[in-house]
């Protein structure tokens, strides 16, 4: 029996692409969304994080390393990334016709 890579991630950090029980397509979509946010907000300063997020699309064992790289960002950069990703993933209010 293998251990899910996300079980190595603390419960408080299991959000977005780091959440439990995501199918492969959904995890990849979330990783790509997060990588796009990181690229647009931080650019080359986050090269290692962007690379880890991309590699984690095919190797879930890298999720923990990607999360550590995200946590290692400068506080303002990290806050901007988290806020932007949360805004993208927030459920839309129901549209009334």
Can you offer a commentary on this structure?
It is a single chain. The chain is mainly alpha-helical and 97 residues long. The chain is built from four helices and no strands. Helix 1 (24-42) packs antiparallel against helix 2 (47-56), helix 1 packs across helix 4 and helix 2 (47-56) runs antiparallel to helix 3 (63-71). The chain is globular, with a radius of gyration of 14 Å. The mean pLDDT is 88.
Put the structure in a nutshell:
By secondary structure, the protein is mostly helical.
Helix and strand arrangement:
Layout: H1 24-42, H2 47-56, H3 63-71, H4 75-89
Keywords: Coiled coil
Coiled coil: 46-73
Distance between the termini: 50 Å
Determine the strand fraction and express it as a percent band: under 5%
**C-alpha Rg (nearest Å):** 14 Å
Shape summary: globular
Count of helical stretches: 4
The strand count comes to 0
- Helical residue percent band: 40-55%
Mean pLDDT: 88
Q: How would you sum up the major sheet?
A: none
Order of helices and strands: HHHH
| Unreliable residue runs | none
Q: State the secondary-structure class.
A: mainly alpha
Provide key terms for this protein.
mainly alpha, globular, coiled coil, 97 residues
């Amino acid at each position: 029996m293998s251990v899910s890579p996300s079980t190595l991630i603390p419960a408080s950090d299991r959000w977005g692409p780091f959440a439990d029980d995501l199918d492969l397509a959904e995890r990849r979509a979330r990783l790509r969304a997060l990588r796009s946010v990181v690229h647009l907000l931080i650019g080359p300063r986050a090269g290692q994080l962007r690379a880890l997020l991309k590699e984690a699309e095919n190797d879930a064992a890298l999720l923990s390393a990607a999360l550590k790289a995200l946590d290692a960002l400068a506080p303002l950069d990290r806050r901007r990334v988290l806020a932007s990703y949360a805004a993208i993933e927030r459920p839309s209010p129901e549209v009334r016709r």
